């Protein structure tokens, strides 16, 4: 995977180092994508080893006219630019996680946010599969390898089989598909590892 030199460590109080210590690391940019209200910010919060960067704003009456709250009635804020977090994996791999806004009106940000990314973890809500189609289309148009993670909402249907879900989302047979709880760090890391394993299988060793 693509690598880059790391910065000198600096203290950031109780949150730990903001920059990576000088060492040989594989630095990998990953997108955390998905529709509005699917749990992207929550997942980055759960795994980030630094204080995450958020650009959230309160939902307003004006945004209620363009943001579909069906299935996410309790949601009161939305990401308007990016979320950012970082997690170090075994073997010297460091993932830089960029959460992308899920609404159509932020589509113009996509190319800038996706630039330099090696892959995407696409979060999906099985209660509203159709909400994921636009985001999956963007990821596929960009040519990014991706994995799909179904966020395990408490009232999500449990009777869908893997093949039925794969057909509903029109996924290629080799696209990883997992279930995770975005609130749980271990579960979220497992979803990210599924993506990393997929990327390792696609990129030749000399390119990593």
Overview of this structure, please?
The chain is of the alpha/beta class. The protein is 25% helix and 21% strand. The chain contains six helices and eight strands. It has helices at residues 40-47, 61-64, 110-114, 133-142, 162-169, 185-202; strands at residues 26-33, 56-58, 77-79, 83-89, 93-99, 119-124, 146-151, 177-180. It has a six-stranded mixed beta sheet with strand order 4-5-1-6-7-8, with helices on both faces. Strand 7, helix 5 (162-169) and strand 8 form a beta-alpha-beta unit. Helix 1 (40-47) crosses helix 6. The longest helix is centred in the last third of the chain and has 18 residues, at 185-202. Mean pLDDT is 79; it is low at 2-20 and 62-67.
Short description:
This protein is of the alpha/beta class and 208 residues long. It has helices at residues 40-47, 61-64, 110-114, 133-142, 162-169, 185-202; strands at residues 26-33, 56-58, 77-79, 83-89, 93-99, 119-124, 146-151, 177-180.
């Amino acid at each position: 995977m693509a690598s880059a030199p790391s910065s000198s460590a600096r203290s950031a109080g109780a949150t730990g180092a903001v920059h990576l210590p000088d060492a040989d690391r594989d630095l990998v940019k990953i997108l955390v994508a998905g529709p509005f209200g699917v749990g992207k910010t929550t997942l980055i919060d759960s795994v980030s080893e630094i204080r995450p960067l958020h650009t959230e704003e309160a939902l307003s009456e004006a945004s209620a006219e363009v943001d579909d709250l069906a299935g996410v009635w309790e949601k009161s804020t939305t990401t308007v630019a990016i979320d950012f977090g970082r997690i170090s994996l075994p073997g010297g791999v460091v993932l830089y996680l960029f959460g992308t806004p899920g609404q159509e009106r932020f589509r113009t940000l996509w190319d800038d946010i996706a630039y330099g990314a090696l892959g995407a973890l696409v979060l999906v809500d099985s209660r509203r599969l159709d909400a994921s189609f636009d985001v999956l289309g963007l990821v596929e148009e960009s040519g990014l390898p991706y994995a799909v993670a179904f966020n395990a909402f408490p009232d999500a249907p449990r009777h869908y089989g893997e093949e039925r879900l794969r057909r509903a989302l029109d996924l290629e047979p080799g696209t990883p598909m997992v279930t995770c709880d975005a609130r749980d760090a271990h579960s979220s890391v497992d979803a990210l590892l599924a993506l990393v394993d997929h990327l390792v299988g696609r990129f030749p060793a000399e390119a990593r």
